[in-house]
Amino acid sequence: MPLSGVHLNEPAGAPPRLSVVVPAFRCGHQLRAGLLALLASTLPRTEWELIVVDDGSPDDTGDVARQFADRVIRTGETPRGPAHARNCGAHEARAEVLLFVDADIRVQPDVLARVVAHFAADDRLSAVFGCYDDDPAAPGVVSQYRNLLHRFVHIDGAGEATTFWAGIGAVRRAAFAAIGGFDAARYPRPQIEDIDLGYRLRDAGGTLRLDPSVCGTHLKRWTLASMLRTDLRDRAIPWMRLLIERRAVLASGPLNIARREQLLVGTMALALLLGATAIVTNRATWLVGAVLCLTVIIIGNWRLFRWFADVRGVPFALAAVPLRLLFYVVSVAGAAWTLVSTPFIRRRGIAAAAVAPIA
Prior knowledge:
The protein has helices spanning 28-39, 61-68, 82-92, 111-121, 141-156, 173-178, 193-203, 224-245, 259-281, 284-300, 302-312, 314-341, 344-347; strands spanning 18-24, 48-54, 71-74, 97-101, 105-107, 125-132, 159-161, 168-172, 207-218. The chain is of the alpha/beta class. The chain folds into 2 domains: 18-222, Spore Coat Polysaccharide Biosynthesis Protein SpsA, Chain A, CATH 3.90.550; 251-353, no CATH class.
């Protein structure tokens, strides 16, 4: 997949061991907390540099960044998305390892040291990424569910990976440059630019690793509307389109497109069909079939709900059930939309890709 090239500056002088790049847009308060957490790192400050990229923020984001960062880059007067912002930061970076950290994440003190250790221990490693911790900052069932779900998925997928997450994700500078960085033209807003980057790193023969001990607290507050909008518009639809273009990746089962998840999405599609049939025909038999399908989905997520109960209690686990069912509804909707909007010759095999990504 040809991309607009990203050519990184050659390091001048003695480079640090790690370049931390933080893309930021209209997030002064969260950015302050995130940068203070980075500065509390156990890795000596002399061994890493901090670059904040202000993506056209109209507020005090740039002023906050200048209080803490070694360099602050402003992309312009209008935002161009985190993919472009990260590329701009990478262009100015001096270290051989780039660590991307989202502005709304408060990393744990040992994250930078863990990242450096990963790359020092394995010359073949192209990228390593982590996850959120189990103590998200925002209250409320939706925010807690969303952040904890992300952690569960990444814990479950620990080890060698076929994709990438840029919330707390590091990549070897040479590997990043070789594939042209993030595809900022295709992803002008927060979407699946990091997943796409991971696929291309793998295409180039790179090794990627998911280490859940590389983690931080997510500060974002989710609402039901923002969760559904993000899952459909910025996750399910673009990710399934990407998978259709790259059909070979379907067999590798990265993170949450394992065969079990594909089957559960298909089961939700059947449940919706049976429910609609029950309404049209006014026959309860079809409704019973729909309920049975939903029961299968709940059973298929038993490990997730049990984990929710362990970390937040049984009431929270029960409250998460309808939210998880909505996830599959969104996945079905994304598949349906992609079927309609994608030419027939390119949409073959779409059912196998019908899962919205959490990564």
